[in-house]
Amino acid sequence: MDDIVIALAGQQAELSGLLDGLADDGWRAPTRCVGWNVADVVLHLAQTDEMAIASATGRYPQHMAEVAGQIRPVDSVDAGAALMVERERGIATTELRSRWSTGAARLTETLDAMDLSTRVVWVAGDLSARTLATTRLAETWIHTGDVAGALGVTLAPTDRLRLIARLAWRTVPYAFAAAGRTMTGPVAFQLSSPSGEAWDFLPDDPALTTIRGRAEDLCAVAARRVPAVATSLTGEGPDADGVLALVRTYA
User: Fold this and answer.
1) Across-strand partners of 199?
2) Lower CB density within 10 Å: C or N end of the chain?
3) What count of other Cβ atoms lies within 10 Å of the Cβ of residue 182?
4) Which domains occur in the chain, in start order?
């Protein structure tokens, strides 16, 4: 099994541990996702895992056409996600738990069985199945944190963050382009892992901008869960402020 699929399965297992035996009041607990409780977050993950399965199996356009036919037109990815959750909100938690776990397992099985260099269609456009798997790891990690926070549980950071931090680094140009901004030049990340190991992400050409700090802080900033000024992150170079404002791990 490829490292990215192993990491995704590990992240799914961490979330599953939070959901096992969860009482009704836990499912109703509000999360830091405004307007969403734990059940809404898990529903969103189930829906987006189903989208990813459709992508990996070559059915993404058809799947999204079916989904779009059930919700009103929207002008952003976030608005579409909100409407998808709104449409199915309130299903029984036993059904929801089974739906998410079944879809999560099918996603890892599908990715494990395919050539991860295969190009697939996704929200942000054409990408490799490996990148799709990494985006699913990132989103599952983000929402595992949302659920843990709602339940008052503190989770220790793991080395799975290396793959998420690398995704954030690789997609800095996309983040700038999506914001209509132009980068001055290459960017490097020099991060410390949860165990204190150095994780350096370096461009082929000399970096003009360098971001430094803890990997878990970088991933949290990229997830839009904490502002950079509240973390260990520092930057130097012409694009430092822009990177810290725009870095992301999702479309």
Assistant:
1) 191
2) N
3) 10
4) 3-151 (1.20.120.450), 161-246 (3.30.1050)
DSSP 207: P
Joined together, the tokens standing for residue 78 give: 């976030």
Within the chain, residue ranges assigned H as helices are 3-19, 24-27, 38-56, 60-68, 77-88, 93-112, 129-151, 161-170, 172-178, 215-222, 240-246
Give me the DSSP letters along 137-192: HHHHHHHHHHHHHHHT------TTHHHHHHHHHHTHHHHHHHTT----S-EEEEEE
Give dist(CA 111, CA 109) in Å, integer: 6
Q: At what angle do helices 3-19 and 93-112 cross, to 10 degrees?
A: 170
What's the distance, Cα to Cα, between the start and end of the chain in Å?
26
Q: Which residues contact 72 (CB under 8 A, 6 or more apart)?
A: 83
Residue 79 identity (one-letter amino acid) = A
Q: Of 72-76, 81-85, 216-220, 228-232, which gets the smallest average pLDDT?
A: 72-76
Residues in CB range of 79: below 8 A, 6 or more apart: none
pLDDT tens readout for residues 156-206? 999 999 999 999 999 999 999 999 999 999 999 999 999 999 999 999 999
With 0-12 / 13-18 / 19 or more C-beta atoms within 10 angstroms meaning exposed / middle / buried, residue 175 is: buried
